[in-house]
Amino acid sequence: MGHKTQINAEDGKQDLVITREFDLPLELLFKAYVEPEIVEQWMGTTVLKLENKKHGSYQFETSDAQGHVVFRANGVIHDFSPNQNITRTFEMENTPFGVQLEFLDFEKLTDHTSKLNMHTIYESVALRDQVLQLPFAQGINMAHNRLEDIVSQLK
Amino acid sequence: MNLRRDVFQAIADPTRRAILLLVASQSMTAGAIASHFDTARPTVSKHLQILTECELLEHEQHGRAIYYHTNAKQMKEVADFIEPFRKLWDDRFNKLETIMNAYKTRK
What we know:
CATH superfamily of the largest domain in chain B: Winged helix-like DNA-binding domain superfamily/Winged helix DNA-binding domain
Strand order of the largest sheet of chain A: 1-2-8-7-6-5-4-3
Oligomer: heterodimer
Number of strands of chain B: 3
Low-confidence stretches of chain A: 137-145
Largest sheet of chain B: 3 strands, antiparallel
Distance between the termini of chain B: 59 Å
Radius of gyration of chain A: 16 Å
CATH topology of the largest domain in chain B: Arc Repressor Mutant, subunit A
Largest interface: A-B, 43 and 36 residues
Structural class of chain A: alpha+beta
Strand content of chain B: 5-15%
Order of helices and strands of chain B: HHEHHEEHH
Mean pLDDT of chain A: 86
CATH class of the largest domain in chain B: Mainly Alpha
Mean pLDDT of chain B: 83
Number of domains of chain B: 2
Number of strands of chain A: 8
CATH architecture of the largest domain in chain B: Orthogonal Bundle
Helix content of chain B: 55-70%
Structural class of chain B: alpha+beta
Order of helices and strands of chain A: EEHHEEEEEEHH
Strand order of the largest sheet of chain B: 1-3-2
Strand content of chain A: 35-45%
Number of helices of chain B: 6
């Protein structure tokens, strides 16, 4: 039995693929990507803007307990088909990582399960490898703590 | 006393992660690094010391200035390349699943 979430990043390539199977109907999985208040909960960030349409754009921001912005990201949505796919760019502001292109494919497996395939392309091999090596650089721990609070409140 | 510190403890701090991110692409002096933070200069120096002790940062003397940069080799070892990245997404997706299951039952 492998991991529920799998990463495929071949050596010397500038892209990677993240796949994940969910115990959720396709519609609920897709909803988690388009409803700002739900995105905020699982991404652990504030959604400043999220226009779910072709040529729409989005912006996320995370602040620490003192109110300092520790993470800000934005992107443009190039393609948007409900319950099927989202094509968008993603850029973490004030970082050397550049813009990445993301192809998100949502797939129904059964009435109660679904699958996400996320193909991300970076500007270069070096940038992809840097992003892979710095998962902690995105202020994730803090976001996680906040998420755990939210989830425990839901129960 | 100069104990070798736990690298994971070192990267658990948001300011230290921000410092690593800053110097990932270019070498910088302590002063230049400190100018990016509101925290007091001695606090930043302490962070630099901790990161240097666990070998995530290296420094080089150029004239009177000391430039800091990330030690790619150590970063790679610490990160075990892909597992923390996978774990990060796995955690996120686990939250998504929990939240949406709660959402479903509320409806």
